[in-house]
Amino acid sequence: MIDLKPLYEKTYMLDSLGNRLEQTIEHRRDPLSMNVASINSVLGEKAKAFLGSADIEMITDLQEKTKLTCPFCSAAEKGTRFMPEFAAEGQLKVGNSIAMPNLFSKCTYDSVVIINHKQHTLFPSQISEKDFASAIKAAVEIIRRAAGQDRSLVHHVLGMNFLNPGGSSVPHPHFQVHVRSMAYSGIERVMKQSADFYQTNKKNYWRLLMDVERQIGSRYIGKTGSVEWVAAYAPYHQKEIWGVLPGKGSLGEIDDDEADAFGLGIARVAGFYESIGSHAFTLAFFSSPKTGEGGHYALHVKICTRPAFKPLYANYDTWFTPLYLGDEVHTEAPEKYAEKLREKF
C-alpha cells in the first residue's frame, strides 16, 4: 500500500580533459502527495563550493545589534494587545512565551508567539525545549479561543521562520499562528489525500507510514513522548524532518504532554541543523481544522533547513523546479542525515 521504491537513472559526460564521468540520480515519489524528489550526492560538492556555510561572526554581530531595539524583547511592556473580548488579559503568557496580535495581519487572527521574550538568541541550539513547548501551548490556546468565538474560524496554521534566509523579518525567535475561515490549500490537500487513502485501504496512512519507517529503520529517528520523528522519504525541502502524532489530527486537541513532545523534538532538530552549519530553518504544523480526525489523519510538523546565513546567500531551495513544479533536488540522501540526527534522540 505504501510504495517506497526509487527509480534510478545514470548520466554520462566528458570532463574538460576528455575523461568519461558517470553519475547516478535517484528519483523518489512521495506515496501520498506523489511529489518527486531527486537525489544526487555529487551535488554535495557543488553545494560546498557555491553555497558555503553560515557566517558565525555575522550571526553573533546581528544578535548583539538587534537586541538593542528588538520589539519582541520589550513585548510585555510595549507589544500589541488582543481585543478584550478575545483575551481580557491583553496578551497570552505561557512560561516565557508571549502571544500577541501581529501588527500586520494576513487573516482574522494573525498572532505572533514570542518563544522566549527574555532571550534574544540567533542560535537554534540555545532555544530550549521548554520554551518551544510553551510557545506551542500558547498557540493552541489562540486556536481554541478563535474557534470558540466564531465557528467559522477553524482553519489554522502554526509556523516558524528563523533568520532571514528562513523567511524571518524579526530575528528574535517566534512562531506565527494564523486562524481564518478560509481553508489552507496545502492542509486541505493532504487531508483529502489521507482520507482517500483511508477509504481505499481501510488504514490510516500516517500510522502505516510510521510502521513501515520503523521497520525499515534507516530514516526513522525516534520518539519524543507520543510524537514520532522521521526523515522524509521524498523530501519537499532540504533535510526535511517530520514529527508525526498518530491518533490526533489537530493542534486544538493536543494536551500539555503532547505539546512538550513536539517542543522537545523541534529543539533537537533545530540544534542538529545548527551543528551542520544550517542555522536558518522553517517549520509548519499541518493541523486539521476539526478535532476527532485522528482516525484517518495525523497532526504533523514539517521542518527543513534554509540557505546558510551569510552576506550573500543563494536561494537554492526556491529555484524554478521546487517553486513552481513542487519537485526538489537534494545533495544528501535522507538516510544519511537521519543517521546523524538519530544520535540526538
What does this structure look like?
The chain has 345 residues and is α+β, with helices and mostly antiparallel strands. It folds into two domains: 7-47, no CATH class; 53-342, 2-Layer Sandwich (HIT family, subunit A), CATH 3.30.428. Helix content is 32%, strand content 24%. It contains nine helices and 14 strands. The protein has a ten-stranded antiparallel beta sheet with strand order 4-5-6-8-7-12-13-11-10-9, sandwiched between helices. A four-stranded mixed beta sheet has the order 1-2-3-14, with no helix packed on it. A hairpin with a 7-residue loop joins strand 5 and strand 6 (109-114). Helix 4 crosses helix 7. The longest helix is centred in the middle third of the chain and has 21 residues, at 129-149. The radius of gyration is 21 Å and the shape is globular.
